[in-house]
Design brief:
It contains 13 helices and 4 strands. By secondary structure, the chain is an alpha+beta fold. Strands 1, 2, 3 and 4 form a 4-stranded antiparallel sheet that branches. Helix 2 packs parallel to helix 4, helix 4 packs parallel to helix 6 and helix 9 packs across helix 11. The radius of gyration is 52 Å and the shape is rod-shaped.
Amino acid sequence: MNVMFIGGVIAAVVILLSIFFHYVPFMLWLSAKVSGVQISLMQLFLMRIRNVPPYKIVQAMIEAHKAGLDNVTRDTLEAHYLAGGNVERVVHALVSASKANIELTFQMATAIDLAGRDVFEAVQMSVNPKVIDTPHVTAVAKDGIQLIAIARVTVRANIKRLVGGAGEDTVLARVGEGIVSSIGSAESHKAVLENPDSISKLVLKKGLDAGTAFEILSIDIADIDIGKNIGAALQIDQANADKNIAQAKAEERRAMAIALEQENKARAQEARAHVIEAEAEVPKAMAEAFRNGNLGIMDYYRMKNIQADTAMRDNIAKD
């Protein structure tokens, strides 16, 4: 019984110690004390109660203290963590900015972090400018030749405009628009190929980084190729359209001519029918003239001779 009692007591003590060291991280407190950070065990215990990880807060405080950042306190770090921020990235950014002599306050860093931007990456980009490439930009010069260009843009993060400033997509879109307008205003594609730096100079003068979170340092044309002859293609399309219109008009005139020819044929057939009908009335008129005494036998034979002569001349003409 004594053995079982002692075992139970030892187990209870172990459980109590585990619970104590879980809610009161003694080794973390000792590490903070050794590093020169002033924090009490009660504060660490209250962090557990507030669902704030003490390890993240204490490590951030130690890093800030070693870097000489006195404005970083436990309360501000806890408040930023509870607001959904990344405490570690903020402290890393503050330390990097301090070493690089970049003006960055704790309030500004937390605002950038809560805005959804990587504040540590922004500080790094302020120290080491980033190079981004534009997609293929297609434009047409005044002589109708298409040019395909790729620009390399060197940008540096502007810490003061990270909150509310436009991102990389806006910078690339503005640079692409500037390249299109520059090539489009060129008289010849040869001038663009000979002096591609003229595009860079013209685009840089437009201040494309206004309202963005970056500062454009340089714009370099990495590659430029010749595309299609848009002017010639448009002329060919116009010629084909004109040809189709002319063909349609010609077909219309041909249809009208055929219709007129058919109408004339119908009229000619109608006239021949009238002639045949009139010729059929001649014998009747002659018979009526014989009966009335208006036509004699000699008149009849004279008419027959005239018909015979006319037929003979027709045969001779045919031969």
